[in-house]
Write a structure and sequence with these properties.
The protein is of the alpha+beta class. It has a domain of 119 residues: Beta Barrel (Lipocalin), CATH 2.40.128. Helix content is 23%, strand content 36%. The C terminus is likely disordered.
Length: 183
């Protein structure tokens, strides 16, 4: 810019443009990194809670029988970056329902609270509590984000007075602990 003339040279305009682009790209990069770090940090407590509750793996009412509406198979897993997922399989006549587990926390020694979002539709959100008894789990409570109660105190809320069914861990061999009896 020439002093007192109000005229800016094309070269100065180019430098200002380049600097603006640089700062804009820098700001976008920092924002993306911070969002990624927040997402990863938020995934860590859920991942830890799933591991501590020993929920990872495949579960079913009857592991040796195929998946069906009366014998749901559920697979709880983690991705390589620590995101938690659950796949619910109701058999060949149904599409598998895959949920992202966005929050998980222990609410009692035998209960884990989960917030799940359907992978194909972010508007489908389930808040549930899983009850665990040794190597068995069952749904203790479940409700949609808008408050529609599906399960309460282990009873299906459809009015038919039916308890949720226990599911056992499928197809996993556990290492014996030192000193444990051989069966």
């Amino acid at each position: 810019m020439m002093r007192g003339t109000g005229f800016t040279s094309p070269r100065a305009n180019r430098r200002v443009g380049i600097m603006r682009k640089f700062y804009f790209c820098l700001a976008q990069s920092l924002l993306l990194i911070s969002v990624a770090n927040i997402s990863f940090a938020n995934a860590q407590p859920a991942t830890r809670a799933l591991r501590d509750f020993d929920l990872l793996g495949r579960w079913a009412v009857e592991c040796t029988r195929p998946a069906s509406p009366m014998n749901e198979h559920s697979l709880f897993s983690l991705t390589s970056v620590g995101m938690a997922w659950v796949l619910n399989d109701f058999g060949p006549d149904y599409d598998g329902m895959v949920y992202r587990i966005v929050d998980a926390k222990r609410v009692a020694p035998d209960k884990l609270s989960l917030r799940q979002i359907l992978a194909t539709d972010d508007s489908v959100v389930l808040d549930m509590v899983i009850l665990k008894d040794s190597e068995r789990i069952r749904i203790w409570s479940s409700q949609t984000a808008d408050g529609n109660v599906l399960v309460k105190d282990g009873m299906i809320a459809s009015g038919i007075d039916q308890r949720t069914r226990w599911a056992g861990r499928c197809g996993e061999k556990r290492a014996m602990q030192p000193g444990s009896p051989v069966e």
